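Appendix B, record 7
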Amino acid sequence: MGLDTDTFRQVCASVERFVEERLIPNEARIEAEDDVPREIVQEMREMGLFGLTIAPDYGGLGLNMRQEAEIMMIVGRAATAFRSVFGTNIGIGSQGIVIDGTDAQKAEYLPRLATGEIVSSFALTEPDAGSDASAIRTRADKDGDAYILNGTKRYITNAPRAGLFTVMARSEPDQKGAAGISAFLVPADLPGLRLGQPDRKMGQRGTKTCDVIFEDVRVPAENIVGGVPGRGFKTAMKVLDRGRINIAASATGTASRLIAESLAYAHERKTFGKPIAEHQLVMAMLADSQTEHYAAQCMVRDAAALYDREGKAIQEASCAKYFCTEMVGRVADRAVQIHGGAGYMAEYAVERIYRDVRLLRIYEGTSQIQQLVIARSISRTWQESH
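Structure tokens (predicted):
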């Protein structure tokens, strides 16, 4: 899967123009209105952004992981709210169907996800289950040819926009931990499904998250992803593997924007008779940021290439997600410092970006979870070789 080189270059050029001419100029509007303008969303649909990773057979562009990463590094230059609008459709909201769905499930949902007719959302996290996803309490009780879902999901991205949820619920009561979890495709209009109040967040205005409450929601058994109960946790882990590379790429794109903002300000602002870009301590901060950005680019591209070759990149995806999201936090901090007092003012982009990137170290596996994944992986490899 993937586009030929020339076609992909054209796609990248179109996305770059869209980011520079439409997305970045609308960032202040998003911050003020806490929403992405409808006309921008429609333009995203027309560009095919909702179907970047969905196969052409279902109306998408069919990008491979390397190409997806390159696009996300471009989109990452703009406010995170833009990525969030279509991000679940190309990532955690659709990939469960793409990777493990039945032919009927793919035919039913992927064409509408690819066009953006419906927005998908991935409902895993709960009030008492986040990093320990195997501890989820949402129940799915068998009732004839259906399951009855009860429980609450928390911090669910795009829930207010969603027409379809992929819901992780405990369907096999005699199986402990991850083995008892199934993934359900749940249309948002089913009776008993309701949304909580939109979350108020530190940053990432324009992104939409809220609780999703299930009260006796009847879901047909055929809506289990892949048609086999008890495999939901495995599906979730496959989805998160690819999603972590996506986030790492987005963080890397944001770092490039921060460096550009810092350079522009450092060449305009003068102290002691010269631009602050010529002061050695400012130069050191710029150099550190550029070096870390380059390292992040290399990690993202390497992990994405491995994913395309092997169909998985568990350790490498965690390494990339861990490094890149921590990296962009450091770059954002330096960007504010380079701007001085101006960096604390809302009229400068770095103030917003500083708040926005803080969340990247938390969702789709915190930095601490990535550390555990990485350490366990290298320990297992060592044990197998000794």
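Remarks on this record: The chain is about 50% helix and 15% strand. The radius of gyration is 21 Å.
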